[in-house]
Amino acid sequence: MSTLAHTMMTAARSADSGLTGPGDLDRYPYAEAPVADRVGAPAWDGADPELGRVGRRAAGSRGRGLHGQLVQQLGQMIVSGDLGADRPLVPEEIGQRFEVSRTVVRESLRVLEAKGLVSARPNVGTRVRPVSDWNLLDPDIIEWRAFGPQRDDQRRELSELRWTIEPLAARLAAGHGREEVQQRLSDMVEIMSHAMAQGDALTFSRADTEFHTLLIQIAGNRMLEHLSGIVSSALQVSGGPVTGCDRPNEASLALHARIVDALGTGDGTAAESAMRQLLTVHPEVERVVPAPREH
After folding, report:
1. Nearest-CA neighbor of 27 among 53, 62, 51, 76?
2. Under 8 Å between Cβ of 64 and 26
3. pLDDT value of residue 39
4. What is the spatial distance between Cα 136 and Cα 148, in angstroms, rounded to a whole number?
5. pLDDT of residue 110
6. What average pLDDT is seen over the chain?
7. What is the mean pLDDT of residues 164-182?
8. pLDDT value of position 294
9. Across the strands, what pairs with 121?
10. CA–CA distance, 293 with 295 (Å, rounded to integer)
11. Is 111 within 8 Å of 71 (Cβ atoms)?
12. In angstroms, rounded to a whole number, what is the distance separating the alpha carbons of residues 293 and 8?
């Protein structure tokens, strides 16, 4: 096994055990706090009961400061519909409910505003914006939707988007990759192979994510490169339509390797074809991607 493969597999196991390290993903779903932990929480005067339903973060959540935790909590509540469109958000009430300072609340609301989830206007205050205003390509919103009531739509939309983006990226990347990039892609295939042999799904997933993200980044199209984070987020969201990427088997590995070979020889058609095969949803899955939407 290469040094890179060993290092990546070790890091993945450390993360799975709850130990964080450089480069670890810093997005974790927050469970609802136990009822006993919420008894003394201040009520939001004049607010709907749902607004305070989530409560303080669970003790097991990792890798976030108060600012990040509050963004996560409020973001999930907005995306889930607990905080509906045009709902006013009063900073003082938020600070009391989540026991954080005014500065933390202010900075958190600014982050949510940048994501299109809320708007702040003079004499109006901060209000929740409708779904049509959200930045649906934001990685956090992708995750929140994927684990909320809109999970089925989110996962279907991600699969359709990947099927549109990645074959094109594979074709454009052919002949563009430098030698060190080619080696990195080959390393990811090797890591996936070792991980599959050891039943290490976490390492397989991480190597797969890096493979697809790197491929888009070397396509030579800056607009496509900007979308690489979407693909990364899609691969981190479990439970979507089952594609070759979701199946750690010899066929999946062979298609990844075929893409690398095609890139090395500059065969864009072969690279595109292999990627389409890899992303094709298997017949036993209810909805095949891409397919005409039903109205």
Report:
1. 62
2. yes
3. 30
4. 14
5. 95
6. 76
7. 86
8. 43
9. 125
10. 6
11. yes
12. 39
User: Is the bond preceding residue 91 a cis peptide, omega within 30 degrees?
Assistant: no
Report the distance separating Cα 76 and Cα 8, nearest Å: 31
Instruction: For tokens 């339903």, name the residue.
Output: 53
SS (H, E, C) the chain: CCHHHHHHHHHHHHHHCCCCCCCCCCCCCCCCCCHHHHCCCCCCCCCCHHHHCCCCCCCCCCCCCHHHHHHHHHHHHHHHCCCCCCCEECHHHHHHHHCCCHHHHHHHHHHHHHCCCEEEECCCEEEECCHHHCCCCCHHHHHHHHCCCCHHHHHHHHHHHHHHHHHHHHHHHCCCCCHHHHHHHHHHHHHHHHHHHCCCHHHHHHHHHHHHHHHHHCCCCHHHHHCHHHHHHHHHCCCCCCCHHHCCCHHHHHHHHHHHHHHHHCCHHHHHHHHHHHHCCCCCCCCCCCCCCCC
Residue 159 tokens, joined: 């699969």
251 exposure class (CB count in 10 Å sphere: 0-12, 13-18, 19+) = exposed
Number of Cβ within 10 Å of residue 209's Cβ equals: 19
Beta bridge partners of 89: 126
Quote the tokens at residue 86. 């045009």
Structure tokens at 66: 């108060």
pLDDT value for 120? 92
Tell whether pTM > 0.85.
no
**What is the residue type of 294?**
E
Contact 109, 120 (CB under 8 A): yes
**pLDDT higher than 50, residue 290:** no
